Amino acid sequence: QKEVEQNSGPLSVPEGAIASLNCTYSDRGSQSFFWYRQYSGKSPELIMSIYSNGDKEDGRFTAQLNKASQYVSLLIRDSQPSDSATYLCAVAGGSTLGRLYFGRGTQLTVWP
Amino acid sequence: GAVVSQHPSWVICKSGTSVKIECRSLDFQATTMFWYRQFPKQSLMLMATSNEGSKATYEQGVEKDKFLINHASLTLSTLTVTSAHPEDSSFYICSARPTTGGAGELFFGEGSRLTVL
Asked: Per the CB < 8 Å rule, is A46 touching B42?
């Protein structure tokens, strides 16, 4: 298994704040990176994908990738209580498309 | 959006029995599906890559004789946990990539929670 590390949290932020989630990965050859959100007892749902160095924004979410540092992050602006979930960082591995390795996840709680 | 259905969503069985979990893509064809296992408060751990019409590719440390995978059609992959024991109790999740999809186009099933008594 490829190693994908996340700051384990839990992370607690007030409503309206910025939540910052971090992830590092071991395979320097990795090219595709994903952030998933998982509610308790449910399957993951894709939040963001990023393939190039730099920032990618989608609404309140911004993913940042630095391949030289093997680091990917997710910023959630204007956090809402509905954002409370576990956020999983995933890295594509090998030549098989769709084959992902996940980090342990960071549990985020946004309090009103 | 595309839908992947898993069945059963939860199952309780006695130790020593076998359990089959189905993963079905409802509105697209998937040459490749993936099986994950997730223990409480742990990450999704990739178990194997299921390939339509050929043998599954297992990750290191996953017993292929224990976790039998069959991908007989472009819309169905099954995972059979043979001679299940309490330590096999976990949340099993499949994902499917449309045959014509890109690298990030992946759809997850709802998961199957297995409890072995």
From this structure: no
